[in-house]
């Protein structure tokens, strides 16, 4: 077990280092791209460009710049922004993390709840229309662009209806949970629901198919022959087996959320989280901030992946030897 | 189906034919193909619509034009009457196909005509990058699954890295860098407005999601007796790959195609929405949603209509994907899916 964990952790570090190099190369070594020109602005003359190159250390060789950036990011933690000179990157990131975590955790709770409830319903209901209806809603869920759904939600809650039905919906933005828990909840309610729709659609479909698949296994027939009730078979056996698949799916989805749909949701709802921070810094080419947020988002993915693997190894000892 | 019929079916038809027949009978496949057909047709005939019916150029700003609505001369763009009166309010839906059916955008351009043109970009990029992704995945999946060893090790590590790189962050980073200056690789130069860039970017980011399952399938196929027999009979690697391995992967490819096209399309529109996908003056459904952002509270139709089209297209593709999966997997029908 110890060897497995060590191997997993070293693989994690390898992936993270590679990602940091990849990001660095994308921004500094893409053929035909001159970061100095980006920073200096459109009509900068040669002198300004040279000055920019010198002051941002762009005249030094790539490996040295990479190592220096990593040292500032992880060791001395005093990496500064390119755009607001002197503004430290790490505090910006740590300020943004609570908003993002609130968003993704809340949305995850909602989509897991919806996904599991309707997934079981679709797989087990005896009424004929329920399964196709839930299946149809699931398809709709996975097909709606999340940012567009956010816009539509804003249209309903922030425009005309804001004076009547949705009077209680606050303006777009984010309020910390420690500042005012009730306002925190109100501000995040619609972003949560918007973000959850897509994944609820995915989870309903996956869980339903998994349960149906397990239900046709031989050991379920054995249970039936032994006289176990359908409810017991559904919950004790089929759902429990299917949830294992769901756990691994959840690990991957939750990990990739920070750099994916959460980013779009934050942009649409004006939530100042890691995603919106990344988006803003991408627009003005603020590489240190991008580097920090990408590293954070990738760490999230890699960590959740590793967690899923370890959980699997705990559940299924055969995996450890692979 | 009686026993006699079914046994005939087994002996007289290839699995592909059986799947195709059950796909033809599938109601979901019919409905989704019909919807897709209409959307593709409207997109392809976009120039005809804008030229002969709407008489407008959807890429040209018409800031001071007027049109006749119900006998009244109405300006296409009006000074805003709400708020500070600084902005402009484009004309709303006229529900008249010959001009501004669902209104104009903030530059006075016909939104419906733009939607049809936008469909061309979105569908073209979605299909091209989906196919590119499939091709790359097939190549990587087969090579690393078939040859194993150090080739597999290298490819798997690369896939691990792309996998852990959040899809949207990777796509956004690449877009931000490439769209400002284009990509120049020696003799190839892709301008910032080229569709090749979003196609390439979207095609690459989803490779791990397809290449990994293909690799796993090839690894399993390689241990099968018919492949061993081919190896034992001295067949060349290329023969084994094309004659024995590839035909057995095609069913999963058929299932992947609609899903990956839908995914690519959604990604394209998201990038275009963030204004790092399709570049103006070209339009895609994502860029039109972005155009509609500023008009959300006055002319919501501009932003809402393209989203409905995206949702319809993606839902049809996913529905069709379900139908294909069930047609290729007879067991799923036995389960009552």
Automatic annotation (TrEMBL), chain A:
Native organism: freshwater metagenome
Membrane topology reported for the UniProt record: Multi-pass membrane protein
Official protein name in the record: Unannotated protein
One CC-aspect GO term: plasma membrane
Record's keyword terms, sorted: Cell membrane, Membrane, Transmembrane, Transmembrane helix, Transport
Molecular functions per Gene Ontology: dipeptide transmembrane transporter activity
Record-linked SUPFAM superfamilies: MetI-like
Domain ABC transmembrane type-1: 97-312
Signal peptide positions (record): none
Compartment list: Cell membrane
Main subcellular location: membrane
Transmembrane segments: 12-30, 96-120, 132-150, 184-206, 243-269, 289-315
UniProtKB/TrEMBL annotation, chain B:
Alphabetical keyword list: Cell membrane, Membrane, Transmembrane, Transmembrane helix, Transport
InterPro entries reported for this sequence: BP-dependent_transpt_permease, MetI-like, MetI-like_sf, OppC_N
A Gene Ontology cellular-component term: plasma membrane
Pfam families, per database record: BPD_transp_1, OppC_N
GO annotation, biological process: transmembrane transport
Places the protein is found: Cell membrane
Transmembrane segments: 31-54, 123-146, 158-180, 186-207, 245-266, 301-321
ABC transmembrane type-1 domain boundaries: 119-321
PROSITE patterns (UniProt xref): ABC_TM1
Membrane-related topology note: Multi-pass membrane protein
Principal location: membrane
Protein name per UniProt: Unannotated protein
